Amino acid sequence: MTTNILPKIKLVISLTKEFIFLVVLLTLFFLIMNIWGHLEYPNLWAVALVLFSITKIYLLVSHTFKKLDTLIENNHSFNHMLLLLGAIIAIIVISFAIDYLCVSEIYTDAFSGFQNNQPLISRFSNFLYFSIVTFTTVGYGDITPIVPVAKLITVFEMMSAFVVIVFIISKYFRNN
Fold first, then answer.
1. 103-122, pLDDT tens digit by residue?
2. pLDDT in tens, 13-71
3. Domain interval for residue 50
């Protein structure tokens, strides 16, 4: 019984460390951006955010495939794969919500259907909602990206959703 729980605990601890690291990095980016003139140099900060987002996606997806390979090699259960998939989806959705928050700080008119004068926690929760809607491809249209960098980061999230859902699930079932 304990040998079956140990791999789950290791996976959760590993994913928790990655999640905390990513959230800390994004939060630092947000704070540094607000301290060092995101309004004076919006295009510079937008390029930095796009490069950071591309790097984040690459590392998340490649690391997820490595973890999935380990799960497959060690013959873990379908529940372990679902745990990995759920954790990766949560990490992606929350990290893109922070990206959208950064974009809205750089360009106050980056999204329609969104009020930038709300408290930080309200803005984050609205972008978390937008990120979930984007990841699931529901796309209600109540919040819409307007500026090119907001559209680009939204496309990055859509591509991440496709890669994570389709390729990871197909890889798991192909090997089992």
1. 999 998 999 988 888 898 99
2. 777 777 788 778 888 888 887 788 777 889 999 999 999 999 989 888 888 888 777 77
3. 2-175
CB 27 within 8 A of CB 98: yes
Distance, CA of 171 to CA of 6 (rounded, Å): 24
With CA atoms as reference, report the closest residue to 106 among 58, 40, 155: 40
- Token pair in block for residue 85: 């998939």
**What are the residues facing 30 on neighbouring strands?**
none
Q: What is the CATH number of the domain that holds 63?
A: 1.10.287.70
Domain count, the chain: 1
Residues 6+ apart with CB under 8 A from 175: 72
